[in-house]
Structure to design on (174 residues):
């Protein structure tokens, strides 16, 4: 019985090994003839939170996610439960817009508000740095506070531009 022709077996073995590797490799998209690639996984669309709704996600309930807002952007900080969960050091920041507290690095109840009136330039810079390097970098955005989008009287905040918001995709909203 004759073996494979010289050289021919060498070309098939690496090709077969590559095909096997691609078939078994986790995390690589499966490509089949005639199938369109699947779109990337996406989370739920962002939503608008009133103060009352946001307060429901303060880390007190074991089966609920933990949310907090900074600069009117609501983050899911559940993955940082050891920092934000019930009895954790930063639990006071959850369930509300704690922009001022983040800017001042304060857990004083008087500072746990959205109001940035009177903050120093250094505090505002600190707020922007923490907002970008901690919250936007680590935690998914699940929505915005109503205060960010609406004025106190309920009229639309004309300074709010959805397309300028972090992780906003206008297709998710309509």
């Amino acid at each position: 019985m004759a073996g494979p022709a010289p050289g021919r077996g060498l070309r098939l073995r690496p090709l077969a090994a590559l095909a096997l590797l691609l078939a078994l490799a986790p995390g690589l998209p499966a490509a089949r003839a005639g199938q369109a690639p699947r779109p990337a996984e996406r989370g739920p669309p962002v939503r608008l939170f009133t103060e009352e709704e946001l307060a429901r996600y303060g880390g007190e309930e074991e089966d609920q996610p933990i949310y907090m807002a900074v600069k009117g952007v609501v983050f899911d900080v559940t993955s940082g439960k050891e920092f934000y969960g019930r009895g954790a050091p930063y639990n006071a920041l959850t369930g509300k817009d704690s922009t001022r507290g983040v800017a001042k690095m304060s857990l004083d109840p008087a500072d746990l508000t959205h109001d940035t009136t009177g903050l120093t330039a250094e505090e505002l810079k600190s707020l922007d740095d923490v907002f970008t390097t901690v919250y936007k970098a680590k935690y998914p955005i699940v929505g915005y506070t109503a205060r960010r989008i609406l004025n106190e009287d309920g009229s639309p905040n004309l300074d709010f531009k959805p397309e300028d918001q972090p992780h906003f995709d206008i297709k998710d909203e309509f």
Observations:
- Confidence is low (pLDDT under 50) at residues 7-32, 37-41, 168-174.
- The longest strand covers residues 141-145.
- The first helix runs from residue 8 to 24.
